[in-house]
Design brief:
This protein has 253 residues and is of the alpha/beta class. The chain contains nine helices and ten strands.
């Protein structure tokens, strides 16, 4: 059983040495994403869970002081963050620091690796709206587990547990790392043949998932740092960012 925070702690340990050698040159906190740009022009992003923002006029006490600071100052939020906003600051920094070997990545659409077939049970943790029609058209049995009631009807705890325990394939949003539900989700799985962690927040490093059933990672590489940071600062979301990102996959198993 994985303890809460296990994956973020492993990610911090993996990157803390390289963080000491990098400085933050830009930080943007938008309505949909957070972006962190380093002095080697590497940029990482992580989702902004807007409905989880802490209340008050001082949401980020250190605002205005990050540019020019060590990447370590932001990376430490992976393990010391007190809310999803602070954790997202750490995760965006981690995603900027990760160096993914070019030979290990693939640009095909993520569900290509899942070998979806009629009757296969799919548990989707977090609504990936563009994938829903494709999964249903194949004839797979899809159960969506979502936390936001504004997006769809929320399942009961019993229904969530059953869907995770009995699924053949699990598609898990990387925002579970931000709201501290990733380990709980993994612990609730039965014996699925494929588990994919998806979304622009996904840390593209297989090492931290070695003791999990995760088989695939679907994330992004920032292609145009300046444009991505500009869009984030103006409240842009995934659709606006898409032309300036490279969507890639890493296969672990």
């Amino acid at each position: 059983m994985l303890e809460p925070g296990t994956i973020l702690n492993l990610l911090y340990e993996q990157l803390k040495s390289s963080a000491k050698n990098r400085k933050v040159i830009d930080l943007r906190i938008g309505l949909g994403y957070i972006g962190v740009r380093l002095d080697n022009d590497a940029t990482g992003i992580a989702a902004m869970l807007f409905d989880t923002l802490p209340h008050g006029c001082t949401v980020v006490p250190a605002a205005g002081s990050f540019a020019g600071s060590s990447a370590t100052d932001l990376l430490q939020y992976l393990v010391g963050g007190k809310n999803p906003l602070e954790i997202a600051l750490g995760l965006a920094t981690a995603n900027a620091l990760i160096e993914t070997p070019a030979g290990n990545i693939d640009d095909r659409e993520a569900t290509t690796y899942l070998h979806l077939q009629k009757g296969v049970k799919v548990a989707m943790v977090g609504l990936f709206a563009p994938l829903v029609a494709h999964i249903l058209d194949i004839g797979a049995k899809l159960t969506i587990i979502e936390k936001n009631p504004a997006r769809m009807e929320i399942l009961s705890d019993a229904e969530k547990k059953e869907a995770l325990k009995s699924c053949d394939i699990a598609i898990i949003t990387a925002t579970t790392l931000l709201n501290s539900t990733f380990e709980e989700t993994i612990n609730s799985l039965g014996t699925p043949r494929s588990v994919i962690v998806m979304g622009p927040s996904t840390p593209l490093t297989t090492r931290i998932f070695s003791d999990t059933p995760v088989t695939h990672l679907g994330g992004v590489i920032v292609v145009d740092s300046a444009r991505v940071m500009q869009i984030i600062s103006k409240g842009g979301g995934t659709s606006a960012l898409r032309p300036h990102l490279r969507f890639v996959n890493l296969i672990r198993k």
